[in-house]
C-alpha cells in the first residue's frame, strides 16, 4: 500500500468519542481498466463509523462501515457488474468494514474486510483539522483488490485502487 504522499495540514485532535457523519464523508477511488489503457474514477458511501481519540494517540480506535452497493462510477453497466458476484458480491456482502489496529499522527493501520476476506491496510493521514463540532480527516492509500479476494476480470480491470478517504466526525 502506497502511503508516500506528504501531509498538508494537521491539528491536535481533542480527546473523546466521535461518530462519523455519513452525509459529510465519502471515499473516492481511481483505478484503470482495459488492460491499463483507460482511467476509472468513482465513489463509495460511508455508512457509519466511530472514532475514539485517546492519550496516547496509539490507544485510539477507529471503526468504519462502507456501503458496498454504493459503488458508483457514473456508468450503470459497470456499476452493476462491480456490485455483482464477480466483484463485490453486494447481495452476500453488503458492508465493507475497517477496524484499526494502530493509530499515529501520520498513519492509520488496520484490517479491511471485503467480500468476507480481510487484509491489512495503512492509510496515510494527509489532513486532520478540528471543526466546531469535531474534526475532519483526509487519508489516502493504495489497495490491491486481489489481496482482498476481489479477483474477477484479471487484466481487463485494474488490480490497484488509489483511495482518498474524507471523513467528518462529530462528538458523541
Automatic annotation (TrEMBL):
Pfam (any one): YceI
Domain Lipid/polyisoprenoid-binding YceI-like: 17-170
Family under the similarity heading: Belongs to the UPF0312 family.
Protein name, per record: YceI family protein
Species of provenance: Micromonospora endolithica
Amino acid at each position: 500500500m502506497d502511503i508516500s504522499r506528504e501531509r498538508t495540514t494537521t491539528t491536535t485532535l481533542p480527546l473523546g468519542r466521535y461518530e462519523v457523519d455519513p452525509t459529510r464523508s465519502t471515499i473516492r477511488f481511481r483505478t484503470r481498466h482495459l488492460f491499463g489503457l483507460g482511467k476509472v474514477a468513482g465513489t463509495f458511501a460511508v455508512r457509519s463509523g466511530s472514532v475514539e481519540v485517546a492519550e496516547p494517540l496509539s490507544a485510539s480506535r477507529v471503526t468504519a462501515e462502507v456501503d458496498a452497493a454504493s459503488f458508483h462510477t457514473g456508468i450503470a453497466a459497470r456499476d452493476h457488474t462491480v456490485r455483482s458476484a464477480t466483484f463485490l458480491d453486494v447481495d452476500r456482502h453488503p458492508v465493507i468494514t475497517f477496524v484499526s489496529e494502530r493509530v499515529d499522527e501520520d498513519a492509520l493501520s488496520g484490517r479491511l474486510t471485503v467480500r468476507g476476506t480481510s487484509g491489512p491496510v495503512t492509510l496515510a493521514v494527509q489532513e486532520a483539522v478540528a471543526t466546531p463540532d469535531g474534526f475532519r480527516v483526509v487519508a489516502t492509500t493504495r489497495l490491491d483488490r486481489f489481496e482482498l479476494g476481489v479477483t474477477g476480470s484479471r487484466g481487463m480491470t485494474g488490480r490497484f485502487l488509489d483511495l482518498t478517504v474524507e471523513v467528518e466526525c462529530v462528538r458523541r
